[in-house]
Amino acid sequence: MRQPAFQLGMARLRDGGVLRGLRAWHVAVVLLALAVSLAAAATRLGTLGSPSSALAALIDYAPFILRGFALNLAMSVLAMAIATVLGIGLGLMQISEAPLIRLPARFVTHLLRNSPWLVILFLVMYLLPIEIRLPGGGRIPLPDWVKATLAFALPVMGNISEILRGAVRLIPTGQWESAEGLAFTRGQTLRYIILPQCIRRGIPPWMNWYALLTLSTPMASIFSVHEAVSNAQASMEAAGARPELLLPFYLFLLCLFFVYIYPIAVWTRLLERRYAVR
Amino acid sequence: MLELIGPFFRDLNDRTGWNFNVFYDPYEYGRFLAGAATTLQLIGWSLALSLVIGVLGAWAQSARSRALRWGVDAYIQAFRNTPPMIQLLFFYFGLGAFTPAVDMGGYSQPVISSFAWAVIALGIFGGAFNVEIFRAGIEAVPDATLEAAESLCFSRLQTYLYVTLPLAFRISLPALTNNLVSLAKTTSLAYIITVPEMTYVLNQVWSDNLNVPEMMLVLFGFYITVVTLLAAGLHAVERRLVLPGYGR
Question: Where would you find this protein in the cell (chain A) (predicted)?
């Protein structure tokens, strides 16, 4: 049963949900402060060896790293869009009644879910061509970042397919039967009755997978896609490749991702709790 | 083993050009075995470390000290919400730069090897998820059970060790299985800090022999096999330890 938003809000206030969220925000602030202080400490170490400090280098190169981070975000959004569309398709195939469609879909889902992201990334990066030749003579170039985006979409696609299958299985059998009694076809039942209910259930895990996908995009740096990590590594190289740069630069990258992912994680948890109310 | 499968794969190479040299060339076969052993060890140690951290963290979260609880909370949020790959780089390059090196007679070697850093980083990363999983399990232990233990004169520690933990472990097993399997997959990331595990080794093999598609297939097959076996093993444990009276 759904409750009015106000009552839900009050209930959350009572059980400490909102307060817990606030406390978590404090943790974020503390972490950021920690990062800055660590960077400052590393700077002090750095001044012993060279005139320009590590922190100054970090500030110098921050815009460059942030530009890389924008590519991370673009890849994550694009990959999630691809994964959602293909994953829903694969999930629908998984719940098909024809074994000829269902079994291959299940096998593909199993493969996609059970192989490491890095292995899929290698597979796609090495086996896809640099460009696609169209029959008419046209050519579509496939830059590395596009291939990486496709690679990141694949494991998420498998998991979205599984989310859909799980959500459909949780719908009570009575709903299928009553829809049949009202002369709905199978397609109509799915379209108007079953799938709309799955969306609510599916959104928190879907957001969770978006967070995981975004956290995986740095792997593209292995193939020198110019995203945050490879830009940071290039910056360190350009700033003299001093060992005292490593700590602040990597810490900065960690904070960058944390600041983006953490609110998403908190929001996911809130939605999870809201949708869990029966 | 090599005598058994070697001729087939050599023949396959001669006839079709599919060069699975890790299965007939003794040198490459040795590399393959070493990579497999490293990957399995890496999986074993990181899973073990993550479990230990999970239990300790869950215990610390139920502690009375506010600072301890905050510390564990900060740890979980920090490691759950940042990319594992950058965590590895941070540990290996960032912190590794500060660990001392020992003189090995002619060349110096850091005290903590890349393998050890991978175990530490992956263990801490997986542990952050395990803490939450165990915490949820501990919270799910019915109060009546704990009260019963108290009335039997169990001390706080005894209740925790003999009642709460075994029950919590069994309640959290399904979620734990998922996380451990995903952690096993994440170990392939150790490639980026040059741990000679399967991904790294096969990378070298295909750079030396230019048989990328074949080795890719081997890599894919290897991980699918390992992950499927691990999942099957953990599911078997799950079935054996299932709590009577819960679920279906």
Answer: Cell inner membrane; Cell membrane
